[in-house]
Amino acid sequence: MLRFNIFGIPVEIQPWFWLVAAFVSGALSVNSADALVPLAGNMGMVLVSILVHELGHCWTLRRLGARPVIILHGFGGAAMWRSMVPNRPQQVAISLSGPAAGFLLAALLAALSHSGFMEGTLLARVISFGVIINVFWNILNLLPIQPLDGGHVLAAALGRSGLATCRIVGAVCAAGCAILFLAWEAFFAAVFFGFLAYANWTGRSLI
Predict the structure, then answer these.
(1) How would DSSP label each residue in 84-126?
(2) 30-39 long-range CB contacts below 8 Å, 24 or more apart?
(3) Cβ distance 73 to 59 under 8 Å?
(4) Tens of pLDDT, residues 107-142
(5) Where are the alpha helices (DSSP H) in the chain?
(6) What was the pLDDT predicted at 205?
(7) CB 37 within 8 A of CB 121
């Protein structure tokens, strides 16, 4: 397990994170030693992208007086904290700040990609990969599925009386995504959302 601090925030990277990052980065298509360098570059971009997303949450948490920590695990990442119970508007702000940071990173990477000075290089391909994953992941993250940020926003909006509704909405949305990804033959994403559907239906925690 890897541990370090970034901007004074403790970060823990669990072993399963690297396996999932490798799958997302195209490990299954590696067929020669020459492909290992691009794979490592994409994995680095996955790491940076998820860290930036979680740092977005942490920025808001710090503004609210909390002391957050970041955990990167097999399902992505989580910003966690103690000693503060956010009210509903604060929870919405915390949840949305992660995707906001991700979209900002996507915009910065897109600007670099369109500048043209790295055209044809490995770095240019990694940056283009970063644009895609940051836009795609953060859109998916806003779906009303627990424990995605959109699920937290829905839970904050409905309150305790709406927990059952959140579970049903999350399960249905996740199941729909799983079917869609299966139709696209994106099997890893299909399995991921299938598990989210199960977790939402049963109310199980994923961390």
Answers:
(1) ----HHHHHHHHHHHHHHHHHHHHHHHHHHHH-TTTTSHHHHH
(2) 37/122, 38/122, 38/125, 38/126
(3) no
(4) 999 999 888 777 778 899 999 999 999 999 999 999
(5) 15-24, 36-63, 88-115, 122-141, 149-158, 163-183, 187-202
(6) 65
(7) no
